[in-house]
């Protein structure tokens, strides 16, 4: 039961995809599913606590990375812009319009 919960949490941390995630899973999602379904129910109940701890730790790492990227994009809005757009946005910030 806990393995299913961890699997669902991993899927929530994956980037959203269009069309539906379930209709077209990525190779990483297919690999995750294979790892979680390869164990029989008796294996899941007897899985070691260290293995579950490693899985939880990796899940926490994924959450931290997602949050890091979100914050990086929020506080550096011009990070993914090319030079021309960055100059235009900087000029607009100080009240100037750059001619096209």
From TrEMBL:
Pfam families: Complex1_LYR_2 (PF13233). Residues 21-53 are annotated as: Disordered. GO terms for biological process: mitochondrial proton-transporting ATP synthase complex assembly. One of its GO terms (cellular component) is mitochondrial matrix. Transmembrane segments: none annotated. This is Ras guanyl-nucleotide exchange factor RasGEF.
